[in-house]
């Protein structure tokens, strides 16, 4: 639920063991074949069907939007000026 609320997006899951590892493997394959114009959809077409797990809580976007903006600003500050104080 937290991921859904923070990023204001539905979260889907697949019914398989180690699904996070499987997702990482799909992204790695996609990276390997990126120069051949193979889409991520093509890479995962044989994956188990995802199911909707949760949707964002009403009103959560108003809470998290400014926090995400601040996080992005701090991240950029660290990336481009790692010795500065945040």
Task: Give a brief outline of the structure.
The protein has 86 residues and is mostly helical. It contains 4 helices and 2 strands. The chain has a two-stranded antiparallel sheet with strand order 1-2.
C-alpha-based Rg, rounded: 17 Å
Mean pLDDT metric? 89
Give the SSE string.
Answer: HEHHEH
- Which structural class matches the secondary elements? mainly alpha
Quick one: overall form? flat
> Unreliable runs, pLDDT <50, ≥5 residues?
none
Largest sheet: 2 strands, antiparallel
How much of the sequence lies in strands comes to 5-15%
Please provide the count of β strands.
Answer: 2
Helix content: 40-55%
How many helices? The count is 4
- Could you tell me how far the N terminus lies from the C terminus, measured between alpha carbons in angstroms? 29 Å
Structural features, described:
By secondary structure, the protein is mostly helical. 52% of the residues lie in helices and 8% in strands. It has four helices and two strands; from the N terminus they run αβααβα. It has helices spanning 2-7, 19-32, 40-43, 60-80; strands at 11-13, 51-54. A two-stranded antiparallel sheet has the order 1-2. The chain is flat, with a radius of gyration of 17 Å. The two termini are 29 Å apart. The mean pLDDT is 89.
């Amino acid at each position: 639920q937290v991921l859904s609320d923070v990023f204001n997006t539905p979260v889907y899951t697949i019914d398989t063991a180690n699904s996070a590892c499987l997702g990482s493997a799909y992204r790695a394959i996609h990276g390997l074949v990126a120069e051949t114009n193979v889409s991520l959809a093509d890479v995962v077409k044989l994956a188990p069907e995802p199911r909707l797990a949760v949707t964002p809580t009403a009103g959560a976007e108003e809470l998290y939007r400014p926090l995400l903006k601040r996080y992005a600003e701090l991240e950029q500050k660290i990336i481009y000026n790692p010795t500065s104080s945040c």
